[in-house]
Amino acid sequence: xxxxxxxxxxxxxxxxxxxxxxxxxxxxxxxxxxxxxxxxxxxxxxxxxxxxxxxxxxxxxxxxxxxxxxxxxxxxxxxxxxxxxxxxxxxxxxxxxxxxxxxxxxxxxxxxxxxxxxxxxxxxxxxxxxxxxxxxxxxxxxxxxxxxxxxxxxxxxxxxxxxxxxxxxxxxxxxxxxxxxxxxxxxxxxxxxxxxxxxxxxxxxxxxxxxxxxxxxxxxxxxxxxxxxxxxxxxxxxxxxxxxxxxxxxxxxxxxxxxxxxxxxxxxxxxxxxxxxxxxxxxxxxxxxxxx
Length: 292
Prior knowledge:
Alpha-Beta Plaits; three-stranded antiparallel β-sheet
């Protein structure tokens, strides 16, 4: 093949490429523009929907992120269809193929689909809301966001948890924030020689003096247990959910100080050890040692 023939074929190839590019490139550029614009629109719409929902007091915070995510995904799906149409691809046949492939993908992604199903059930049954403190077996923390796939939790010691929804749905959920009031339940041990009525009155007094204690139900003190070394007095008071831990700690400290100030002792476990009598009868019945 001589240089003239090779040059002619190369020129014909370039002409073909230019003709193809003149037809295809506008569609490719248009598809890229639609894709970039659609992605930008989806992101800004997501943030706009979030801000709008935050101003609506009637919409629960738990639903805000889910609604915004659905809007964003809906826009992205329409953008994908528009991009395919811009490239000259028949979207009808593509959607049919995607429908057939969706079944296979669904079988391969059962875990992801189960997270979506669990997220929808959590939104429907509402065992917790954003801001609630929950305990679900191996995870516990304050709910920050409930999404379609996972739930974000913050623990009391500042740790971020990203928990798949299926793990929450398949566990027993204890919600510590749902009810408006909680019962503070404390135990105080006093000596067997102490005046139990006086101890009960002392504990009732410190409970009633605290403004965080609810009048209804009334505070209650009773003998709960006759232990090995102490009589256990049990104090039960009701308070607002937000005041539970502050009141728990306050009554624990004040209860000890008040019982001691009233002359009651808070015993600690003791054990008397006796030695058997030796051959000469020495030391029978005498305590040999006392250990705590």
